[in-house]
Each structure stands twice: as structure tokens, then as C-alpha cells.
Amino acid sequence: MAETGTKVILTVNGVEQKPSTLSGTMLDALVDDGALKEAKLQAPSTDDVLLAHRVARIEIPYTDIETTASSPYQIGPTFPINTVIKQAYYEVDTTFTSGGGDAATISLGFLTDDVAGIVAATAISAGGNVFDAGGHNCIQDGDFANRSEILTAARKINCVRAGGQDLTAGSMVLFVEYVIAVP
Length: 183
Fold this sequence. Notes:
Order of helices and strands: EEEEEEEEEEEEE
Number of strands: 13
Number of domains: 2
Radius of gyration: 20 Å
Strand order of the largest sheet: 6-13-8-11
CATH architecture of the largest domain: Sandwich
Shape: globular
Strand content: over 45%
Helix content: under 10%
Number of helices: 0
Largest sheet: 4 strands, antiparallel
């Protein structure tokens, strides 16, 4: 892609595509499926820059949710130092269940920085049915006041189960929208 004034020339496989005009700071461009393999993003700095909006998609079957907070099962990609979660939500594909009344609790978070900071420890049987099939918001609901703590090191998300009952079924897909903040 080569910039010329307020026009952007997009090339795919060396073929120039129809020029698009910038409006403010947003650009819309159509790229053929499979044409974009990797994009390099400007590294965060203390200068005024556009930060990339990133989204992680993480599949979580019930077998990936461990029993202790001291050695939780770590899932998904490694989020870089200075990550801030803006919004997180999940889709439960298969309702979660545990032996004996669904008393098991599930939490998602980052070890040290935000232990249960994505999904607070909640019993499967709790009101609101947050582990039943369907879409659910996490603590980070898009409101600035509910953003996550800034990660002090690169970390994966921890899945923790408590409540003394083994999980017997359940699966979800977690979506995490985040940016890399500059302290």
C-alpha cells in the first residue's frame, strides 16, 4: 500500500485496486479472501498513534477448566505486557453442568493482574444462568470504567473451577477485545 496525499493505493498480488479516499482517519477497502496473510502494526509508543483494535477468539471446553487457583489451566494466546481488555463476551454452545446440583463455580482471569477479572467466580446454578447456552457479557462490557487492569507481564487467561464438583459438560467461545496501552 502506498500513500499519496489523501488517497491510498491498495495493491493485491501486485495488481492495483480501485483507489479509496480517506475520510477522517478511517479507510474502507475490499481485500480478496486469502489475499491478506499478515499485517504489521505500528508498535505502541508515547506518541499520538492509531492503536490496533485486536480481538482474540478462544474456545473453552469444560475439560480446560481446572480445579485450583494455584495451578489454573491457561488458555488462548499470550496477551502482551500492557494489554488492556476493553470488552469481553462469550457464547455458550453447550450448557455447563457439574455433578450434584451444578454448585461448581467457574472464573476466568489473569494470574496476578486480574485473577477473576474477566468472569468473576460464579456458580453454574446461580441466577442469571450465565453458563447456560447463549451469549453473555463479561466484566469488561465496553464501558471505560469496566476495563481490565493493565497486564504487568505477558500472560494467558486462566480458567479456574471451584466448588468441589467436577464439570460434566459445557463449552463456550470467549471473545476478548483489547489494545496494548502505553504506561
